[in-house]
């Protein structure tokens, strides 16, 4: 019996009344739940001030909130928000007593008749997910067939829309390792952009993190996986799969041998090409991309690996000509008095900040070199720091030494990043001045106030935002507002 069949007349519990928890309440009410309890860590005063407490009680649900919100946890079906580990003692005890553990995303995946294309990975998920939805959307504009729904970890819950979906539609979902921890039989087409150390403040170890990512490729639904050929961990996942795999890399590497239905995506003569064992097909010239950086070339390759058999060349080229990136990722906010201000608040890991630095270096390469052979312009002033995810900062330190002109460290992890810089053999404090400013807003304002003509000011934190902000969007908005007020 699936989760949906267990809802009717059952006691359903919603753990966390946030982005994924809120759409569950009306859905469960509309589908016959007998009793609904919402449990949230926030205080009653906080939830009353936001109006959420009244909304929950008016709907006829019970509210348990505050520090003791998990005490005596029980119910027939428990829906956890992604931030709740499934092995919390209170959850484990409830499951041992017979409760079924699920989530808003798992219920959606169970109920949707649409073709589900799922994207996970340590880096590039949001850009890749957005690209896939745009490719499919451009094709539906041309053909008039089907609709495209975009959501999941990208910020939009899809459960409220599931009743309107049909088998002709596509649901493109970004999936985090938190969401995948307990997911079963998830998607029809699975993408893993790459796997590097991430979220190790939440996962018990790297092995658990990799296993969570790999779950996107499991289940009876899976019809194709798209995997990074150069990434040792994704190769290990792909080589165990029985479904066809599309392997991609924008770098030189040895690809796994082609099996029936497999594809290789690579760069040849300035174009992203696809080889299926019989025919090589150029899909898109890289010069047509409006996004800088080789990492974005790989995001395009991942997306094309997902949908190249579903969309036309016309749709592909339309998206490439129009798409300038997602909000908060290398987003040019303003060019003022010769200073360029970039918001890349979404860069919540060292590898994303390294990718942003590399992209800016590539943009400078395009400007050419001076008579001495040096790149024109200056390396960026980088604002780094935030909440640590227990991942190493040594590669970040090496990248800052190579590709930054000045660093402003802030947030909880400022000390760890500084320690990594001090350990870095190439760190020279005279060549790379570092300023430590604990307060995030003050750090942003200082970076902007002290910038000079020719500078690039880059917010690329390499950490999560939760030490000072609700999410990375709020962090990026604060930076935007500071820049716009100059």
Question: Rg, please?
Answer: 23 Å
Task: Compute the average pLDDT.
Answer: 94
Structural class: alpha/beta
According to CATH, the homologous superfamily of the largest domain is: Mur-like, catalytic domain
Report the biggest beta sheet as strand number plus sense, adding barrel if it closes.
Answer: 9 strands, mixed
Show unreliable segments.
none
CATH top level assignment of the largest domain:
Alpha Beta
Question: How many domain units?
Answer: 3
Largest sheet, order of strands side by side? 7-8-6-9-10-11-12-13-14
Assembly level: single chain
Count, helices: 17
What does the overall shape look like? globular
CATH architecture of the largest domain: 3-Layer(aba) Sandwich
Distance between the termini: 59 Å
CATH topology of the largest domain: UDP-N-acetylmuramoyl-L-alanine:D-glutamate ligase
Strand content: 15-25%
Structure description:
The chain has 17 helices and 20 strands. The chain is an alpha/beta fold and 486 residues long. The protein folds into three domains: 3-102, Rossmann fold; 106-322, Mur-like, catalytic domain (UDP-N-acetylmuramoyl-L-alanine:D-glutamate ligase); 331-484, Mur ligase, C-terminal domain (Protein-Tyrosine Phosphatase, Chain A, Alpha-Beta Complex). The strands form three sheets. Strands 7-8-6-9-10-11-12-13-14 form a nine-stranded mixed β-sheet, sandwiched between helices. The chain is globular. It starts with a helix and ends with a helix. 50% of the residues are buried. The mean pLDDT is 94.
């Amino acid at each position: 019996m699936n989760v949906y069949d267990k809802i009717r007349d059952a006691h359903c519990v919603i753990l966390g009344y946030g982005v994924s928890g809120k759409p569950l309440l009306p859905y469960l009410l509309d589908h016959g739940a007998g009793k609904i309890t919402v449990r949230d860590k926030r205080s009653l005063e906080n939830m009353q001030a936001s109006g959420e407490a009244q909304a929950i009680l008016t709907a006829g649900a019970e509210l348990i909130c505050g520090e003791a919100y998990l005490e005596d946890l029980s119910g027939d079906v428990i829906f956890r928000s992604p931030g709740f580990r499934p092995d919390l003692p209170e959850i484990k005890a409830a499951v041992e007593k017979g409760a079924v553990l699920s989530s808003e995303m798992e219920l959606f995946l169970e109920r949707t008749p649409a073709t589900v294309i799922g994207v996970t990975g340590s880096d590039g998920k949001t850009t890749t997910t957005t690209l896939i939805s745009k490719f499919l959307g451009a094709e539906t504009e041309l053909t008039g067939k089907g609709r495209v729904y975009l959501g999941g970890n990208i910020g939009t819950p899809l459960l409220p829309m599931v009743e309107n979906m049909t088998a002709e539609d596509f649901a493109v979902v970004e999936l985090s390792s938190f969401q995948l921890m307990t997911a079963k039989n998830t998607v029809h087409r699975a993408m893993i952009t790459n796997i590097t150390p991430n979220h190790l403040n939440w996962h018990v170890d790297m092995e658990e993190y990799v296993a969570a990512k790999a779950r996107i490729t499991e289940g009876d639904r899976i019809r194709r996986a798209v995997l990074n050929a150069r990434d040792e961990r994704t190769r290990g996942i792909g080589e165990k799969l029985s479904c066809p795999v599309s392997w991609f890399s924008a770098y030189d590497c040895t690809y796994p041998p082609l099996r029936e239905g497999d594809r290789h995506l690579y760069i040849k003569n300035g174009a992203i090409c696809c080889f299926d064992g019989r025919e090589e097909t150029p899909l898109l010239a890289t010069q047509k991309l409006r996004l800088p950086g080789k990492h974005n070339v790989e995001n395009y390759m991942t997306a094309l690996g997902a949908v190249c058999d579903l969309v036309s060349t016309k749709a592909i080229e339309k998206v490439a000509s129009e798409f300038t990136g997602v909000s908060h990722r290398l987003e040019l906010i303003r060019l003022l008095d010769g200073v360029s201000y970039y918001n890349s608040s979404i860069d919540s890991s060292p590898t994303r900040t390294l990718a942003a630095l590399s992209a800016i270096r590539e943009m400078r390469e395009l400007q050419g070199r001076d008579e001495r052979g040096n790149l024109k312009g200056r390396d960026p002033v980088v604002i780094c720091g935030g909440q640590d995810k227990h991942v190493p900062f040594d590669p970040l330190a090496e990248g800052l030494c190579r590709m930054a002109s000045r660093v402003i460290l802030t947030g909880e992890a400022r000390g760890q990043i500084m320690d990594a810089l001090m350990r870095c053999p190439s760190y020279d404090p005279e060549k790379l001045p570092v300023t430590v400013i604990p307060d995030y807003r003050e750090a942003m304002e200082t970076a902007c106030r002290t910038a000079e003509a020719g500078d690039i000011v880059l917010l690329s934190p390499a950490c999560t935002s939760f030490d000072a902000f609700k999410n990375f969007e709020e962090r990026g908005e604060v930076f935007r507002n500071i820049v716009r007020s100059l």
